[in-house]
Amino acid sequence: MLNLMSSFIDKVVRIFTDFEILQMIATGLKQTLVISTGAALLGLVLGMIVAMVKIAPKSKIMIVPKAICGVYTTIVRGTPMALQLFIMAFVVFAIRGFPQIIVAIIAFGINSGAYVSESIRAGLLSVDKGQTEAGRALGLKSSQTLFNIVVPQAMKTMVPTVGNEFIALIKETSIVGMIGMYDLTQVSKILAGSKYFASYLVPTTVIALFYLAIVYLITLVIKLLERRLRASDKR
Q: What integer is the mean pLDDT of 21-44?
C-alpha cells in the first residue's frame, strides 16, 4: 500500500515539475477555456434572442419566429451533444482547413443557447406582471419597461441558472477529442498512454483537479454576483 501511495505521489510530482507536461496542460487548458468562453458568449446571445421571441406577444408576424425557436430548443435539448458536435464537424463544416475550434464553439454555443433561452425566459416570466403594468402606467415604452424594470429583477433568477449552464458547458467540452481536438481531457489520455504513467489513475486525477478548480472559481463568481443582487434589494 505504501509503495502504491509513494508511486502515486511521485507521478503527481512529475506532472507538476516536468516542463513539457506543464506545457501540454497549459495548451489543453487554453483550448478548453477558449471553446467554453466563446460558446458561452454565443449561447448567451442566442439564448437572449430566443427568449425574447418566445415571450413576445402572439401576432401574425411572430408565428414563424416562435415556431423556429420552438423547433430549435426542442431539437437541441432532445439530442445528444456528441451527436450535434459530429454533425457540425463532419456534415455542416466538413470543409478542408476549416478551423476546428470555430466548429466546436459554434456547436457548443448553439447547444448552450437552447438551455440559456429557457433560463432567461423563466427568469423574465418570474417577475410579477404588475411590474410591467406599473411601468406602462408611468408612460414607459415596452422596451424601457423590459430593460429598466423587468430585467433587473429577473437577474436574481437568471444569474444562478445561466452560471450553472456555463459550468456544465465547461465539462461538456471534454468530448472535443472525439473530433480530433486537443483539450484538457486529451492531455490525460496522452499522459496515460506514455511509458512512464502507463495508467489513467494519476493523469485523470490531476486533470480532474484542474476542472474542479475552474468550476470552483466560477461558482465563487456566481455567489458574489448573487450577493450583489441581494444587496441591491436592501437599498
A: 95
pLDDT tens sequence across 45-100: 999 999 989 988 888 888 999 999 999 999 999 999 999 999 999 999 988 888 99
Helix, strand, coil shares, percent, the chain, to 5:
85, 0, 15
82 and 55 part of one domain: yes
Compute the distance between CA of residue 115 and CA of residue 48 in angstroms, rounded to an integer: 11
CB distance 90 to 20 below 8 Å: no
Place of cell 430549435: 72
Contact status, residue 50 vs residue 117, Cβ threshold 8 Å: yes
- DSSP secondary structure of 165-189: HHHHHHHHGGGGGGGT---HHHHHH
Pick the most confident of 121-125, 191-195, 220-224. Answer: 220-224
User: What is the arithmetic mean of pLDDT over 20-28?
Assistant: 93
Structural domains in the chain (count): 2
Position 10 scores a pLDDT of: 85
- Its domain, for residue 46, covers 36-179
Alpha helices, DSSP H only, in 18-128?
19-55, 63-78, 81-87, 100-125
112 and 42 in contact (C-beta within 8 Å)?
yes
- 108 vs 35: CA distance, rounded Å: 8
